[in-house]
Amino acid sequence: MKLSQALLNQNRLALSRILTQVENNSESGRSALNELFPHTGKAHLIGITGAPGTGKSTLVNQLALYYRKEKDYRIAILAVDPSSPFTGGAVLGDRVRMRDLSGDPNIFIRSMASRGSLGGLAQSTVAMVQVFDAAKFDVILIETVGAGQAEVDIAKLAHTTLVVEAPGLGDDIQAIKAGIMEIADILVINKADRPGVENTERALKGMLELAHPTRRVFQHHGQRMVVEAPSKAEEQNPIWIPEVKRTIAKDGEGINELCETIERHLTFLREGGEWVTRERTQLQSTFDSLLRENLFTRFLDELSPDAYEKTLSKIMKREESPWGAVEKILNGRKV
Amino acid sequence: MKLSQALLNQNRLALSRILTQVENNSESGRSALNELFPHTGKAHLIGITGAPGTGKSTLVNQLALYYRKEKDYRIAILAVDPSSPFTGGAVLGDRVRMRDLSGDPNIFIRSMASRGSLGGLAQSTVAMVQVFDAAKFDVILIETVGAGQAEVDIAKLAHTTLVVEAPGLGDDIQAIKAGIMEIADILVINKADRPGVENTERALKGMLELAHPTRRVFQHHGQRMVVEAPSKAEEQNPIWIPEVKRTIAKDGEGINELCETIERHLTFLREGGEWVTRERTQLQSTFDSLLRENLFTRFLDELSPDAYEKTLSKIMKREESPWGAVEKILNGRKV
């Protein structure tokens, strides 16, 4: 209880300790989450994802610096690296990052590598974000590397998702974009001083049309045209059409404009019902995952270890299929 | 029953149908898996993973052609694309592939995009592989795009995992390699006619040393030297030191040598206990996942929808945390 109270009073050491407890999924971590939960729901969660080489970390640094200088916000950065299940690429990222941001007591940086299953990672991210939220950080920047399902899952956590691209990463990258495109609220073309930036922008806008076919937006001689008329439902609940922004993060260029777009997205979320909808979806998925995990653990606890081993050995001998065995073991369980 | 029998008799239409049933996780799919399971456990599962742009698909085509020509094996290719949760990049891959391989009745190609959760994807992949295995394919090539946790999970399925790299994909790619490195049985440098191939090879070998520190292998003037003496345990159970192979898949160069290495790895697996160990791990994880999913579904079925909704709404109001709510709902359930 004392540690949670210290965290609510913005004590950094308490924050560090609770984050570790939570990451380790310890008993004390779970009870801290329980105590802190009533104090959550205020922070703006911004997800930043994209392939390696797009300059994501530099961009995240610049966003943090902007919010510190322009808004005096308290900023947490959570760098999640699902691509390092074993050893820590994330740690290296921290060192690079530290040069700009260290020493500011209103910035807190934490990195996390995937240790167990991916489900576990998304679960830990949810919990870590709750802790930051309770500790009264105004903005939580959640950075993920790559463009796979892991990023999609983690992006679902965020209120605003930035997908970062860079010119000249090769045509093959296009294939990977289709999925990630549909989670982007804002598309950032970083390293916009590189050659090929026009091509990248054209390609991204083309993909946006494919990803959001309900309301086609065309560029026509540089002019933005909405071709299909919005439906009645859309008029009542306006939709967010992802915007494409250029930045050169290493020089701080385009950051102000990007942050204004993020702000507009936040207003859109709050004024429509979207903020509440996303929160509900997210809390429900947290609840479901926890329920799933606990049901499994409890079932195994109740089952004799012998019964589990016997079933497994039948499966190994192919006397029973995993599908059939599950039916049997569940129908035979003591109720 | 008839459909399963047709599949066991290597009927392609039956195979297609059952794959679809299984991918949709339908009742008929589960019962087919049940019937087919006793006929599984024979195929050699080869996983091929790597970043976009490394020429994975071309390499997979060449492997398939090699096994057809040199060994007269029946080959299944399962292309899994975890990066396209929404729309099908995988389909495009198929078209490219078809030119070389279509028309051969002993090659079967199927692609799969991630539809739901990632857990679901790994689960479907397991099931699809079981179907191919029962249909008496000698080798099943499982191709995944990217280098995230999804690939790691899917690679765990395979007996032999190839990680494909290409020279000149940029230094940033290095960061992503640390994790994927530890799942590689064979590292393939494809597009080996590109400049920078020596650097890539040096980097990969350096990373291998980091990933397998129990037995350091150094290149010394081109000579392979094991510096640390193997331990007693290692002498009894020799370990596999991942090998680095160069290929130019588009010209078919290096494919024979690569396939010989794959063959050596297979022998290693079969002669040590590794084949059985991997099979056990994989079957146990399938069993656990199914158990988890079924426990959850059954619990929700037994629970009144009202109780679930009430809990969720308390969580939304932050009167109860997801962690606390799970405790309550599980302790209060009717036994």
Describe the protein.
The structure is a homodimer of 335-residue chains. Chain A has 335 residues and is an alpha/beta fold. Chain A folds into 2 domains: 40-291, Rossmann fold (3-Layer(aba) Sandwich), CATH 3.40.50; 303-335, no CATH class. Chain A is built from 14 helices and 9 strands. In chain A, helix 8 links the parallel strand 5 (160-165) and strand 6. Chains A and B meet through helix 3, helix 5, helix 6, helix 7 and helix 8 of A and helix 3, helix 5, helix 6, helix 7 and helix 8 of B.
Gist of the model:
By secondary structure, the first copy, chain A, is an alpha/beta fold. Helices cover 53% and strands 15% of the residues of chain A. Chain A is built from 14 helices and 9 strands.
Describe the secondary-structure layout.
2 copies of one chain form a homodimer.
Chain A: H1 2-8, H2 12-23, H3 27-36, E1 44-50, H4 56-71, E2 75-81, H5 89-101, E3 107-113, H6 118-134, E4 139-145, H7 149-155, E5 160-165, H8 173-181, E6 186-189, H9 197-211, E7 217-220, E8 223-226, H10 232-236, E9 243-246, H11 255-271, H12 274-302, H13 305-316, H14 322-331
Parallel strand pairs in A: 1-4, 1-5, 2-3, 2-4, 5-6, 6-9
Antiparallel strand pairs in A: 7-8
Helix pairs in contact in A: 1-2, 2-3, 2-6, 4-5, 8-9
Name the CATH superfamily assignment of the largest domain in chain A. Answer: P-loop containing nucleotide triphosphate hydrolases
Name the largest protein-protein interface in this structure: A-B, 77 and 77 residues
Q: Please state the CA-atom Rg of chain A, rounded to the nearest Å.
A: 22 Å
Roughly what percent helix of chain A?
40-55%
Structure annotation, total helices of chain A = 14
Q: What order do the strands of the largest sheet of chain A run in, or round the barrel if closed?
A: 3-2-4-1-5-6-9
Task: Please identify the oligomeric state.
Answer: homodimer
